[in-house]
Amino acid sequence: MKNVLKNALFGLTALACFASCHKHNPVTPEVFYDEADQMGRPAINTVFIKAPDKDKFNVTIPSVMAATFGSEMKSSLLGLNPGYTTNLLGLNADQFIGVLSTDVLNAATTGPTTFYDGTHVLTGRALADDVIDVELHLVFGGPDGSANPGLTSDHVDANDVPFLPEFPYLAQPH
Amino acid sequence: MVACAVLTVSGILYAADHMDAPAVKGQPTDITDLYVFQGKNTDNLVFVGNSQGLLAPSATGAASFNPNTLIQFKIDNDGDNAEDLVIQAIYKDGKVDFFGLTHPSFTGLRTKIEEGHFLGSVDVTPYGAGTPIVATGKDGIKFFAGPRDDPFFFDLDQFHKIVGGMATSFNNPGHDTFAGTNVLSIVVEVPKSLLHPQNGKINVWLTTSTAETTPKQS
């Protein structure tokens, strides 16, 4: 009975919609798309979000990420580096997580675009940027980058093949 | 096929965003990386969205974009971390169609294609092609879609050993876990003047979304 009612309602709704929408969109019905994955900066979900929340992180809009995941990410940071004080950017744990927990990639529309080149911080992400070493330094390196020297670089400093000088910039597939 | 490639290349799991979460692992929606950088023409900004990573060469020819997966660069140009502009890419019949650089009709997790804002399309470059197929659309925007070398590099295996308590430091030299693997790339080069940044900067995130199985009228 419930199903019969449901079907009848669905039919009515479809008819009503057909009548009102027909003239605007005669060919394709409007298809909606539901978010499945997202990323801003490299390795945020991977490193800072705990296993049970990884799917949830991918369907949380950036503007509410800090409130939703900030404390969990701080706990992950201190789990990775229990001795964390501040980092090369002078950020304490709360300030550092304050930056990371809204997972968007900042990009400058004037000047160099780089994840971090010693001068410019978070003005984009270029293909050759060693983003992992930057993140390892900020997590493990302490206030001057010299702490935990075995953990601040993975010693893979470049891609395995050169990039192209022009569009589409990425190298041919292997 | 993707699962095979993963096993072939290595048994590893997470990376930049490769296979970051259970629901997307092995799916056409699995993002690997986002890059945003100044183009060779410095009046332009380049957006790179990679997905379906860790493809062994033997698996790359069979990998393809999915007609039910919408790939979007979401752009905040006023600093509130909500999208003001989108660039949308979706595969159809051997091509990828691009829409956008407009304020989306629906922000957030449920969106639709901005069909009134068609930017252009590009044939997907087949695996094994000698040169990439590039197209230019509205306002001089450039497009590429197809398999590429994964530009990401990281000794992920050693990182896992460290996190798992099986090692206390990285090796020198390290070993690039992503060497020799491919991804499916979408590359779009856009004049900066179309982005309307309020303070000389934008915030960008890459999303993938799946078509609802029962199309609904709005």
Structure commentary:
The complex is a heterodimer of chains A (174) and B (218). By secondary structure, chain A is mainly alpha-helical. Chain A has a domain at 44-140. Chain A has helices at 2-21, 44-48, 54-58, 62-80, 93-100, 131-140; strands spanning 32-39, 105-108. The longest helix of chain A has 20 residues, at 2-21. Residues 1-26 of chain A have low confidence and may be disordered. By secondary structure, chain B is mainly beta. Chain B has one domain (2-9, 17-150, 182-207). In chain B, 9% of the residues lie in helices and 39% in strands. Chain B contains 3 helices and 11 strands. Chain B has a 5-stranded antiparallel sheet. Mean pLDDT of chain B is 91; it is low at 1-13. Classes of the chains: A mainly alpha (174), B mainly beta (218). The interface between A and B is large, with 71 and 94 residues. Chain A: InterPro entries: DUF4331 (IPR025566). Chain A: It comes from Puia dinghuensis.
- SSE class of chain A: mainly alpha
Strand order of the largest sheet of chain B: 1-2-10-9-8
Series of secondary-structure elements of chain A, N-terminal to C-terminal: HEHHHHEH
Q: Care to count the β-strands of chain A?
A: 2
Q: Please summarize the sheet with the most strands of chain B.
A: 5 strands, antiparallel
Helicity level of chain B? under 10%
Q: What is the distance, rounded to the nearest whole angstrom, between the alpha carbons of the first and last residues of chain B?
A: 36 Å
Which two chains form the greatest contact, residue counts included?
A-B, 71 and 94 residues
Task: Please mark out the parts of chain B with pLDDT under 50 across 5 or more consecutive residues, or reply none.
Answer: 1-13
Percent of residues of chain A in beta strands? Answer: 5-15%
Most strands sheet of chain A: none
- The end-to-end span of chain A amounts to 59 Å
- The tally of strands of chain B reads 11
Structurally, how many domains make up the residues of chain B?
Answer: 1
Shape call of chain A: globular
Q: With helices defined by DSSP (H or I, 4 residues minimum), what is the helix count of chain A?
A: 6
Whole-number mean pLDDT of chain B: 91
SSE-based structural type of chain B: mainly beta
